[in-house]
Amino acid sequence: DAIVFIPEGEIAFGKLSQSLAYGAKTIQIEGDFDDAMELVQKVCDSEGIYLVNSINPFRIEGQKAIGFEIMQDLDWQVPDWIVLPGGNLGNNTAIAKGLVELHQLGIIQRLPRLAVVQAAGANPLYTAWTSGEDVVPVKADTIASAIKIGSPVSWRKSMRGIEALNGVVTEVTDDQIMDAKAMVDAAGIGAEPASCATVAGIKRLVEEGTIKPHEKVVGILTGHLLKDPDVVVNYHTEGIEGIESRYANAPISSSAEIDEIRKIIRS
């Protein structure tokens, strides 16, 4: 049996629907992701339930395959950068670990640099990285629900991985995330907001000169557009508070008259 703990009202319907449809016992917890994470650890300890969050080291071992597959797809030619979003920080921990192991085995001849991108409203790793201090939990607030995490459980391992790959941590605003998402979606790829923090982060790092124009960059999109479809419709129609919707593509209403349709098509 599977038991899924979620923060009530804090999870995109695309993800909630999968949990319900696939038959998991879904428990909605009052509070945010961090409250649910704290509770689920206590429940698993007391009830003997196997926890598969990224705090589980075996999950990290499995997630190393992301890095392996990137290298295989590139014919083992190492890119200059790998960039991905950071929430609970399991993905970047695993990718860094896997790449270090590939290097130690002589399968790749050098290591890429790693960039982790956080939302500005959920940026404990970024704050710790820039200050040189330990992570201090924050009250997360971002439209990117998949990285809306203020107390990431894997932050220490994440830091070690970033340092091993001579990496960086940056942050981007929700406005930047949604603009990047509109461009990614329009290209026919389609990703949820948290994934598009990757693209917004690459843009920032290029503008700052951290990523150079000649460097090869792999950006990881971690979630499909349909995991969070509501935010797409809101961005393109009624708008989202605090978001400018610069690339809005609102539907056009029309009568069922061919002449009016022609006018719309030709305008």
Helix and strand topology:
Blueprint: E1 3-7, H1 13-21, E2 25-29, H2 33-47, H3 57-73, E3 81-85, H4 90-104, E4 113-119, H5 124-131, H6 155-164, E5 168-172, H7 174-186, H8 193-208, E6 217-219, H9 229-236, H10 258-266
CATH fold group of the largest domain? Rossmann fold
SSE arrangement, N to C? EHEHHEHEHHEHHEHH
> How many beta-strand elements?
6
Read across the widest sheet, the strand sequence of neighbours is 5-4-3-6
Global geometry: globular
Question: What is the CATH architecture annotation of the largest domain?
Answer: 3-Layer(aba) Sandwich
Radius of gyration: 20 Å
CATH class of the largest domain: Alpha Beta
Main sheet summary: 4 strands, parallel
Helix content: 40-55%
Number of helices: 10
Mean of residue pLDDT?
95
How would you summarize what this structure contains?
The chain contains 10 helices and 6 strands; from the N terminus they run E-H-E-H-H-E-H-E-H-H-E-H-H-E-H-H.
What would your notes on this structure say?
The protein is built from ten helices and six strands, in the order βαβααβαβααβααβαα. It has two domains: 3-47, Rossmann fold; 57-236, Rossmann fold (3-Layer(aba) Sandwich). The chain has helices spanning 13-21, 33-47, 57-73, 90-104, 124-131, 155-164, 174-186, 193-208, 229-236, 258-266, and strands spanning 3-7, 25-29, 81-85, 113-119, 168-172, 217-219. The model has no long low-confidence stretch (mean pLDDT 95). With 267 residues, the protein is α/β, with parallel strands linked by helices. The strands form two sheets. It has a four-stranded parallel beta sheet, with helices on both faces. Strands 1-2 form a two-stranded parallel sheet.
